[in-house]
Amino acid sequence: MRFFFLAFFFTLLVAYAMAVPAEKQSVIISYPNDTPQSVVDDAIKAVKDAGGKITHVYNIIKGFACEAPVPFLENFRVSIASEHQGVVEEDQPMHANNGPGISI
């Protein structure tokens, strides 16, 4: 009986360890200004459905920042580039001076 409980516990432990969520990446997804808003809304919904999180929706440009699973983003990059000329780029710090990171 003790062996059964130990085996059951070990099986649960292995199953839990394998259920680790996919690594997420912070990205900015943007579209040309003439893209219909419904396309951007559909993209936001797709990110949320894939387990991602919207961190910011931009008003000046058509786009948004999000954290999404890497496997989803790999497929998403291909689909939006071919359909709507959308761009997926890594979100990274921007600096206005000559400090570390990308300078403008």
TrEMBL record:
GO molecular function: endopeptidase inhibitor activity
Signal sequence bounds: 1-19
Domain of life: Eukaryota
Xref: InterPro entries: PBI_I9, S8pro/Inhibitor_I9_sf
Gene Ontology BP terms: vacuole fusion, non-autophagic
Keywords carried by this UniProt record: Signal
Family: Belongs to the protease inhibitor I9 family.
Listed name of the protein: Inhibitor I9 domain-containing protein
Classification of source organism: Eukaryota, Fungi, Dikarya, Ascomycota, Pezizomycotina
